[in-house]
Design goal:
Helix content is 47%, strand content 15%. The chain is globular.
């Protein structure tokens, strides 16, 4: 792996002509291409003019970091404007500290070039909040404040749109439909609820009047999952052009608007779903898209989730029983031949027998292994380096073959159903085929999902490449026992390389935190970024030393002593905080968070808003209301509150962090990756755990300063950051807060 060149920008580079000179103190880490490509004059002029217009319209002064970010992205993507000279899609990574204005920067840098070259721009965010901000605030500001002209569309998955055929089936209410609906889904409890007929009538009226487009998020009131799920289909259940409602389909109408849009605002999950389907299925063809991944540090982990597989033994057996009970009805309706029915019944029976055998073998593993992680009624076992015993591999191989055949059997039925939906057939046959199609598609999808899991358990990972993590989970409660199997890549590198970095027109990755310990090695490894990637780190404009202090109390206690550490935090909170705090306390462990709550004095417990008690948005709303009323408020949260929480000014003047946020030690994916790193002759703790913890700590501390006017304190209850060698390495990678260490005196309060 090549080391990145560290370049200090001095003087004026060719790209500086876009926006003028840049400060000579900013550091950029990037690999230089052989040629420095220049943007076309009209594109440069368009970017320059739009930036000046936006600054003037909002009465803002230019930001050095923002100008640099625009210039670097534009320069990196400029290779697309050279005929035949762009062998590899350009990839640009920009870490832009809070206050840089990165959304405006990437919009201005990418959109003019993309439009000139007839490329689509796909902006993918990790959270709904940022997605809404981009499409409701940032893009309208660019359009209103400049001469730039481009069309936009909001991209969502099928699950956010109502299926007209499903609505029709639910409202028709005939006995035949009810019989088939009893087989919909995989959980009878979900199916039997049937949704809310009155709500569905209102939806039909709104659709007919043109007052609603079938988008769940645009309905006038929140819709419960129980009411919404019966109305949706996934990719395998959708009939596409064969559907009698295709011309008015809510999803495909939204899809058509994407085809016409210059800029599509999406999310990481939808982009990855599209890539998993081969690309160009939900979103436009990757080869014609420039992707912008905001909050890009989430991308490798979300990619692993998308290319993972999972199954439950007993639940799968129950599902197969439901499939068997369905076949006679399918045969009665003349949508399956006698020989097909007999073949599928025999195949399902053999599969259930193999599942019983696998249960016995897996149960023996869970009963015999010593290194099993147990918690309450659950047990978990991760196979070392993802290597599955030969006996399990053999069973898995047989099951994978069975599920391939089952999936093909259901797919053949669906192919026949499509024929029955042709215009030449009678109306009753077509309607019945449309009712069966989503159910059979659902079963085909589940069979394919099982096939993927068992194929992974049957496989042997190639030498020299990171393995897949494979693990078992055992759950026993309410007289029900279940064994789950899971498989996941430990690195997203291979999937992202094959499906994204080598196929897209270009890509930009940005976030406030992308590097760790002063380099991008962790991101490069996890995301598999190509060698020609450009890297740029732009520091935040905040004056950290003046605005905030980082305090490390002398506790004389290692966080590994959970009980003593918790007791100290309980005693410390009333000393460190005022009686009307505006604070956020972050924990690495739910158990410790709950133990601290239970140990607090009543008057302090009344100030706590715990993430387990409210939805995130509601909790933040309550917190702001308390502060506005002059009351105190202390938020208790886990890792999800260490990012994406924006409490500027008076709403957060103190961030407390229980300990250095090392990853959960029993996570099967990280365990397997660590084992593989050790096998390569490296130290997993220093290679993975320390950089990851440093990254998380920077994110957590970043909740304090959200604007240049903010001030406050960060308190870390973990002396390892100043006592351990690795801790000092982490400390040096943090922003240059003013640092203080003091001894806690539980009798009289803190003293320096």
């Amino acid at each position: 792996m090549a080391r990145l060149n560290c370049v200090i920008i001095q003087g004026i580079r060719p790209v500086d002509a876009i926006l003028g000179t840049v400060p000579p103190t900013v550091t950029t880490n990037r690999i230089h291409s052989k040629d420095e490509h220049m943007l076309a004059d009209d594109v440069k002029s368009s970017i320059q003019l739009a930036y000046r217009q936006l600054l003037d319209s909002r009465e803002l002064t230019p930001r050095y970091g923002q100008r640099l970010m625009i210039a670097e992205i534009a320069k990196c993507l400029s290779v697309l404007a050279t005929d035949g000279d762009c062998d590899l899609p350009p990839v640009c990574v920009v870490e832009a500290g809070t206050g840089t204005g990165k959304t405006l920067a990437y919009l201005l840098a990418v959109l003019p070039l993309a439009k000139a070259l007839d490329y689509k721009v796909v902006i993918a965010t990790a959270t709904i909040a940022l997605q809404e901000q981009v499409i409701q605030k940032d893009i309208p500001e660019v359009l209103a404040g400049s001469d730039l002209s481009f069309s936009i569309a909001l991209a969502k998955g099928r699950g956010r749109y109502l299926c007209l055929s499903k609505l029709d089936v639910l409202l028709r209410g005939n006995d035949s439909m009810q019989a088939i609906m009893g087989l919909y889904g995989e959980d009878p409890a979900e199916v039997d609820s049937g949704g809310d007929p009155a709500l569905y009538e209102h939806m039909l009226d709104a659709l007919g009047a043109g007052k609603w487009q079938g988008d769940r998020d645009e309905w006038k009131q929140p819709i419960s999952d129980a009411d919404w799920k019966p109305l949706t289909v996934d990719n395998g259940q959708c009939m596409g052009p064969k559907c009698s409602n295709f011309r008015n389909c809510c999803f495909y109408q939204a899809r058509d608007s994407m085809d016409k849009a210059d800029c599509i605002v999406s999310n990481h999950d939808l982009v990855l779903s599209d890539l998993a389907l081969g690309g160009g299925v939900i979103l436009p063809d990757p080869a014609k898209c420039i992707y912008i991944f905001d909050e890009a540090h989430h991308l490798p982990f979300k990619s692993n989730n998308h290319f993972s597989s999972f199954t439950r033994i007993k639940s799968t057996e129950i599902w197969l029983q439901r499939c068997e009970s369905m076949l006679p009805r399918l045969h009665k309706d003349k949508f399956i031949q006698t020989r097909q029915k007999a073949r599928l019944q025999k195949l399902i029976g053999a599969t259930r027998e193999e599942l019983d055998n696998s249960w016995v073998a897996l149960e023996q593993i869970l009963a015999s292994e010593d290194n099993i992680d147990r918690y309450e009624n659950r047990a978990q076992y991760a196979f070392t380096l993802g290597v599955v015993p030969e006996e399990i591999q053999s069973l898995a191989s047989n099951l994978a073959k069975h599920f391939v055949s089952i999936a093909k059997g259901f797919q053949h039925i669906n192919d026949d159903l499509k024929q029955q939906m042709e215009p030449g057939n009678d109306t009753a046959t077509r309607q019945m085929a449309e009712q069966w199609f989503p159910l059979i598609g659902s079963h085909a999808n589940r069979a394919e999902s099982n096939q993927e899991l068992w194929s992974s358990f049957a496989a042997t990972d190639p030498q020299g490449r990171a393995p897949c993590a494979r693990w078992l989970s055992f759950d026993e409660r309410d007289n029900f026992r279940e064994i789950s199997l899971s498989s996941s890549p430990v690195l997203a590198a291979e999937n992202l390389q094959q499906r994204l970095w080598l196929r897209c027109a270009g890509a930009v990755l940005t976030s406030a935190t992308l590097s760790s310990l002063g380099n991008f090695d962790m991101l490069k490894m996890r995301a598999g970024l190509p060698e020609h990637t450009h890297y740029l780190s732009i520091p935040s404009p905040f004056d950290f030393a003046t605005a905030a202090r980082l305090v490390v109390p002398r506790l004389n206690c290692d966080p590994s002593d959970a009980q003593q550490h918790t007791e100290i935090i309980i005693k410390a909170i009333p000393q460190i905080l005022s009686n009307k705090p505006a604070a956020l306390m972050l924990f690495s462990s739910r158990r410790q968070m709950l133990d601290v709550m239970q140990g607090l004095p009543r008057e302090w417990l009344d100030l706590v808003l715990c993430q387990d008690d409210y939805q995130k948005s509601q909790l933040l709303k309550y917190h702001r209301q308390r502060i506005d009323k002059g009351e105190g408020s202390l938020i208790f949260g886990l890792s999800s509150f260490a990012e994406g929480v924006d409490l500027p000014g008076k709403y957060c003047t103190h961030v407390l962090i229980a300990k250095i946020p090392f990853a959960v030690p029993n996570d099967p994916i990280e365990m397997t990756l660590s084992e593989w790193i050790e096998q390569q002759g490296m130290n997993a703790f220093m290679t993975l755990a320390v950089p990851d913890a440093a990254f998380r700590l920077v994110q957590a501390s970043g909740r304090l300063l959200r604007s240049e006017e903010d001030t406050g304190q960060i308190t870390l209850f973990d002396e390892r950051i100043v006592k351990r060698r690795y801790g000092k390495t982490i400390l040096e990678s943090m922003p240059p807060y003013r640092r203080e260490i003091f001894q806690l005196d539980f009798a009289s309060g803190p003293v320096d």
